[in-house]
Design a protein that fits this description.
The protein has eleven helices and 14 strands. Strand 7 and strand 8 form a beta hairpin. The longest helix has 23 residues.
Length: 341
């Protein structure tokens, strides 16, 4: 019998420390999402219905990518390229929740066009990914990165971008200048606004769980297994609505919802019908939803079965004894069931 690996190694403890840090989802439809092939993924991400949970090692890799940006800027400046100071970085905001943050603005000094301003876009890659970009170019190899640059050029009025890729395995550098495509950029922005303001979830790119663009997607489990969100927050609630002024409105309380209060749903939270696998039964209720769970009608909403209870243990919510128990003990809740405990 193999002795299990120790869990208190320095590496594991460091990874656990990274995993324990809060990592809240971005509040807007980011430019990095607009080139995604799957509109459902974009909608689920913007609605905070799917939130990836990364292991500590991957979080450290992300950190390394962020830390590479100032090093790239130092190297560019060392060869005479004029880059705006980091504290002068600019963002672009197109309204309707669509916005993004630019890595850098290059004022001048790019060897191929020394007097041209450029958007700077910096990425780190594994050896395989780097080789692919090198062989195919950024538009074919990394269409999401290409779209991101188009968005930034569109938002700033700068018609060139400099893509700088660094290979994490051997520190090789690949650079490519990208031209502004106005038609493409306008379509990307319009797409982002449409998806952000959509009340209903778009169809998936594929219904095949083995489809290559689905296999490693953060929404794979939702689309191909559970069809149930794991997150109770204002954006997964049927009462909340994204507005075209980049705010959110709660129909239940007839009030705007500030971003800092959107991360947790209130007692009136009712699961959005597109974020559950159950049939919704027609009713004349304004603030509750009736879902058919395992053949039993369950009322979800204020004073009834909470959204978190349905997420944690939907089958447990169908037990007729639950309502009676709650009448006796008002604070009682249906919780996750672990058959191994």
């Amino acid at each position: 019998m193999k002795i299990p690996d120790r869990e208190d190694t320095i590496e594991n403890l460091i990874d656990k420390a990274h995993e324990a840090r809060p990592d809240r989802p971005r509040p807007h439809m980011g430019a990095s999402m607009l080139g995604s092939v799957c509109e459902r993924k974009m909608w689920l991400s913007f609605r905070w219905a799917v939130q990836p949970k990364f292991p500590g090692r991957i979080l450290r890799l992300f950190r390394r990518g962020h830390q590479e940006e100032p090093n790239i800027i130092k190297d560019l400046r060392a060869i005479g390229i004029v880059v705006k100071p980091l504290n002068a970085q600019e963002g672009v905001d197109f309204g309707c929740h669509v916005s993004g943050s630019i890595d850098a603005i290059i004022e001048s000094g790019v060897p191929e066009a020394p007097n041209k301003r450029h958007i700077g876009e910096f990425k780190t890659h594994s050896f395989k990914s780097f080789k692919d970009v090198e062989d195919k170019g950024v538009e074919r190899s990394k269409p999401e990165h290409y779209a991101q640059m188009q968005i930034y050029m569109h938002g700033t009025g700068i018609d060139r971008a400099l893509y700088v890729a660094v290979c994490k395995d051997n520190d090789r550098i690949y650079t490519e200048r990208v031209r502004y495509d106005k038609e493409m950029a306008e379509k990307l922005v319009a797409r982002g606004k449409r998806i952000a303001l959509s009340e209903r979830m778009p169809p998936p790119i594929s219904t095949d769980p083995s489809w290559f663009q689905c296999k490693f997607c953060d929404a794979h489990s939702f689309c191909h297994e559970t069809q149930l969100t794991k997150h109770e927050n204002c954006r997964t609630c049927a009462h909340s609505t994204p507005k075209d002024d980049s705010t959110w409105h709660c129909e239940r309380w007839d009030a705007g919802i500030a971003v800092e209060y959107q991360h947790e749903g209130c007692e009136a939270h009712t699961l959005h019908p597109d974020l559950v696998p159950w049939r919704m039964v027609d009713s004349n209720l304004d603030w509750h939803a009736i879902y058919e769970v395992d053949g039993v009608l369950v009322m979800n909403g204020e004073g009834k079965v909470s959204s978190q209870e349905l997420i944690d243990n939907a089958s447990g919510c169908t037990n007729p004894a639950v309502e009676k128990v709650k009448q006796i003990w008002p604070g009682a809740k249906v919780v996750k069931y672990d058959p191994t405990s």
